[in-house]
diphosphomevalonate decarboxylase
Amino acid sequence: MTISQTPVIAKAHTNIALVKYWGKADEHLILPTNDSISMTLDHFYTTTSVQFDAQLAADDIILDGIKLPTDGQQRIRQFMDLVRQRAHTDLFAHIETSNHVPTTAGLASSASGFAALAGAAAKAAGLNLTRRELSQLARRGSGSATRSIFGGFVQWHAGHDDESSFAEPLDEKVDWPIRMIAIVVSQDEKKIGSRHGMKQSQTSPFFNDWVKQANADIDPLRTALLKKDINRVGSIAEHNAMCMHATTLSATPPFTYFNGDTIKAMQLINDLRSLGLNCYYTMDAGPNVKVICLADEVDAILDHLRPAFGNDQLVVAKPGPGLTYL
Ligand code: PMV
């Protein structure tokens, strides 16, 4: 195991879940309560450079051009401790990370962020990890990062321990024109982060039913993806998202990630569906809506959304690649 003498730069793309990860079976190891399936997106990615340096007394972290105070970003420092432990080193590192997620896109960067950090830090530390091992490592930073190691459609196997919880590609070179339109209804920082939101949702009397439903959605979704059946893919994903959000409304205390514009976007998509278009919505731990559709209906969908949402609130994404080194 040799520490790299030059900076290692990795690039990872963000992903949106079609069957959501929502709930932890183990908070420390970040083991999820259920399997999940996502699509990695093309436009939105993070690049991260890591170089270990014997001169440093702490990790030196620059996030989108801003140097973090020594006590800032506990999550990144804890993640780096994990890498140091595995590589049997006590060296700190220079870490420089840039998020290429249009600020207007309203998409979370923790998935691409921790996937890129896992890739760059592991290689810089001289660890020669397989992609499965990288996905296990990325999981310790942020659950959804587990899936961003791979491109296209990806399944995260919940597993029961550190070893058995990893992601696997279902189809990395997607050759059908599936699209996701992000409707950015708000760019505000989310009030209830996903860690806290999941924990609170686990108080819902429906939480066990959510887990059952999510696991039951996996095989039908895999089949629908294989058959390139947009209506099956969309309806499973939409129903799954609604089941996830039902655990927030029924939590103690109850909460929701939706705002008025989220509901408006859902209604517009429902209208389009009743007009015969094949489009479905999904939402994560925030108010923004992602529309699942096919390329040849994107323009008609955008036309219908435009009176309510400006051009800068509508971002179209395609399936994207997994982790690469620059
Ligand atoms: O990776 P986290 O801890 O930010 O959790 C992500 C949770 C959802 O985005 C809501 C769902 C998912 O599977 O990505």
Summary: The two ends are 21 Å apart (CA to CA).
